[in-house]
Every structure is written in structure tokens, then in C-alpha cells.
Amino acid sequence: MAARGNESKIKIYELLKNTFPGSFMVDTKVMRVPFVEDGVPVEIKVSLTAAKDIMGQTEGGEVKNLSKEINPHLTEQEKKNVEKLAAALDAPWAF
């Protein structure tokens, strides 16, 4: 099983590569984007990570964690199990 978000990261790296000519991958996880700033060459490192939670903006512009509302990967029983475990661990990050 591929890591979550792997296909999306590949697509984003391709978009960056096409948007910034001269950019290149150092390895499978880091891209370098060359620029010239005040006459001095610089390289911006870009590394992408798939987020564990889903953040979004409400119609009012508020940024909030939408993971509970849109996580299609957990069944209701799995959510209950996570809530029970989080409560036992006194973890505030639970659903």
C-alpha cells in the first residue's frame, strides 16, 4: 500500500517543476527551486507532507479541522474505537 497522499504529491511536484523552470528533485522527497535574489543565486527547498487532518475554510472564512466531518476512511465503529482510546489516553485530538 502506498503512503497516503503519494499520488497527489507527485502531481504537485510535477506542477511545480512545470511552473518553475530549472527546478529539480534532489531525491524522491525534496525539490529545489532556483532563484536569483539581489543578484545572488538561491535555492528554495520544497518538501511535501500529507496532512493527518483535513483543514478547511467555512463560508465565513474561519479555518477549522474538518477531519470529523469528511474522513471517509473510518467506519463508525472505528471512530468509536478511536474515541474510546483517546478518552483512555486523555488525548484532546480525538474525534
Task: Explain what you see.
With 95 residues, this protein is of the alpha+beta class. The protein is built from three helices and five strands. The strands form two sheets. Strands 1-2-3 form a three-stranded antiparallel β-sheet, with no helix packed on it.
Strand order of the largest sheet: 1-2-3
Range of helix content:
25-40%
Structural class category:
alpha+beta
- The helix/strand series, from N terminus to C terminus, equals HEEEEEHH
Outline the low-pLDDT stretches: none
Short description:
The chain has 95 residues and is of the alpha+beta class. The protein has 3 helices and 5 strands, in the order αβββββαα.
Helices and strands in order, then pairings?
Elements: H1 6-19, E1 24-25, E2 31-37, E3 40-46, E4 55-57, E5 63-65, H2 67-70, H3 76-89
Antiparallel strand pairs: 1-2, 2-3, 4-5
Supply the key terms:
single chain, 34% helix, two-stranded antiparallel sheet, 23% strand, elongated, alpha+beta, 95 residues
